[in-house]
Specification:
By secondary structure, the chain is mainly α. The chain is built from 24 helices and no strands.
Length: 470
Amino acid sequence: MSTAPEKPRKPGIGDVFRALRRPKIAIMLALGFSSGLPFFLTAATLGYWMRDEGVSLKAIGFLSWVGLAYSFKFLWSPLIDRLDAPWLGKRLGRRRGWILVAQLVIAGGLVAMASLGPRYGLAALGAAALVVAFASASQDIVVDAWRIEAADNTEELGLLSSAYQLGYRIAVITSDSLILFAASHLGWPISYVLMAALMAIGVAATFKAKEPSAADEVLHEKSAEAPLWTGRGLFDAVAGPFVAFFRTWGWVGLLMLAFISLYRLPEFVMGPMATPFYHDLGISKDMVGAVRGTVGLAASFLGIAAGGLLVARIGYMRGLIIGGILQGLGIASFALLGRYGADPRLFGAVMMCDNFGVSVAGVALVTYMSSLTSLGYTATQYALLSSAYAIVGKLLKGFSGAVVDGLHASGYSLMQSYSLFFVGAGAIGLPAILLCLWLAAVQKKNRPARHGAGQELALAKPAPGPASER
């Protein structure tokens, strides 16, 4: 008598957090923290500092363009893929050597920002912030490559991605919220020095991590067959990742890049105005830090777990659609604060919506992009994808302050101007959701048999195993 095959157990929310007991997953959590810590220190948090010093919204918006370093990291990622880090590469390996170099430069750049401050002029401060952003983008290139290459299978890739996002969100809460307590009582310069000291968490994780041997073998074989300084080697390092990507996906690859570039627009565009909004609304630094460090942090954790469960149960594409909707609604909810004022309960509810929606969307997108890379080109291909996801938003967000100022000048009150801006920022995510629906339909007809790090991943189906892809 035949029996029906047992259905695989559906993942539960506990699976996302139980995996943190594994050493490799815990290391990924710390590296995710190290990746996320500098991001807001050259963006929204820097804007709060500038607003405290009386800098205009327009200047704050333009200063946020230092973050364009994240958008163009694919330009130097081939060098990181093919060359060892100076002094450290031979001892630690290619991936870990570059991670450590980037972490040390970030820490030094944050100390420089603390020393300079706005009193030496925005140009000097912007230059130091640009160094931090460049080193942070470089760290992201290598940490993303390590995350994908260190995974033994599809399930572990998802768990590593979830741990990365969890660490990243903890860092965001630290550098966007908890830092406000320090700034309120110790001042901004000391707060930035403290953030530099926290980079030690990532440094310790780098020494504990193991170099992904399989990827190292492929990269060294490529270097031996065609050194970087030869024509063939240079072509393979620079053009090879893009040729391999479009050979795998064809014209659908262009559709993927267009979708990825639009998906996180709402978060990018509203970013520079969030902390000046708190300032102008009259919310104290202590309240912002307390709410974002408690309610916001809890909502981020829940969003990460929910994003992992969504992708594992219903697949990448449907997870991306749901995440995109939640992200847009969370960002548009800031308009309620402009309409009804700084009520602590309303502020907490808005923080919950924002952090939950952004976390779900981030989990879905990072897992989807991770599934599209090829071994041997991991760093460059993922840098291309993550640059595509950031470049449009980074360009547009520089005009965010000009938009709010323009609305205010046209006759709206400052709070009405902020409210209209946040509603618009949430709404610009709609084209990405529509494009995602089209992409899901196209990929069903154009799904290659194998891709990523050699794993068979179904793009429009749930991945097997416990809650994994984030």
